[in-house]
């Protein structure tokens, strides 16, 4: 289980009432959103002498994060007026979100702009909730898989231009997952070329250039 917040220590007379304290402190409704470890079992003692409370170490877990992300997405997707099924998985420090439905073109947007913006918003939201740095991957109807093929075609055409002209080729601004696909394609298919991302978000773009021993030539 991932730890979303620092552990806190709670004590009480029994497990049930102590967990109620935990829920109140973390402002959650369900025990599924918290993880805990008993560090001291309760003891009634003898005639009240030696009585010990139960002591827990507790923290918010990944289910809390999944539930909050789901609520956040629902609040945004409501305005698209589309029926959307949200599936969220959390593994290590990566949150993967799948959106499924009949008509999701508005959510994807032209060249995936809405999708990229939505992913960026979710990433900001998630990383404000925790000190742990999370990677957020958002996909709509396998859009990323289809987009990757288009990006590889763009990378191929740009690579050929860079070789023919023996100079750098700048691509249009892209989102992080798109730039990553371009970098991987160039690295795996063109050993005499290199690529780098330049600029600031949301105008950050990929530059492909002829390279010798990994050194820039522009």
From TrEMBL:
GO molecular function terms attached to this record: RNA binding
GO process terms (BP): cell wall organization; regulation of cell shape
Domain R3H: 145-212
UniProt keyword list: Cell shape, Cell wall biogenesis/degradation, Chaperone, Cytoplasm, RNA-binding
Protein's UniProt keywords contain Chaperone: yes
InterPro entries on file: Jag_KH (IPR038008), Jag_N_dom_sf (IPR038247), KH_dom-like_a/b (IPR015946), KhpB (IPR039247), KhpB_N (IPR032782), R3H_dom (IPR001374), R3H_dom_sf (IPR036867), R3H_KhpB (IPR034079)
Superkingdom, natural source: Bacteria
NCBIfam families on file: Jag_EloR
Xref: PANTHER family: PROTEIN JAG (PTHR35800), RNA-BINDING PROTEIN KHPB (PTHR35800:SF1)
Protein name listed in UniProt: Putative RNA-binding protein
UniProt organism field: Defluviitoga tunisiensis
Gene (UniProt): jag
């Amino acid at each position: 289980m991932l730890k979303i917040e620092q552990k806190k220590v709670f004590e009480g007379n029994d497990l049930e009432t102590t967990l109620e304290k935990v829920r109140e402190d973390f402002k959650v409704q369900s025990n599924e959103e918290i993880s805990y470890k008993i560090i001291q079992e309760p003891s009634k003692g003898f005639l009240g002498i030696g009585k010990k409370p139960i002591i827990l170490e507790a923290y918010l877990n990944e289910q809390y994060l999944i539930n909050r992300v789901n609520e956040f997405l629902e609040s945004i997707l409501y305005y698209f007026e589309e029926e959307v099924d949200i599936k969220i998985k959390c593994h290590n420090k990566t949150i993967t979100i799948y959106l499924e439905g009949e008509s999701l073109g508005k959510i994807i947007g032209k060249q995936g702009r809405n999708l990229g913006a939505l992913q960026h918003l979710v990433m900001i939201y998630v990383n404000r909730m925790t000190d742990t740095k999370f990677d957020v991957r958002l996909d709509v109807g396998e859009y990323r898989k289809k987009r990757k093929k288009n990006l590889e075609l763009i990378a191929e055409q740009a690579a050929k231009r860079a070789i023919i002209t023996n100079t750098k080729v700048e691509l249009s601004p892209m989102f992080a997952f798109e730039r990553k696909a371009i970098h991987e394609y160039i690295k795996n298919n063109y050993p005499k070329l290199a690529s780098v991302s330049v600029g600031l978000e949301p105008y950050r773009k990929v530059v492909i250039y002829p390279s010798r021993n990994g050194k820039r030539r522009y």
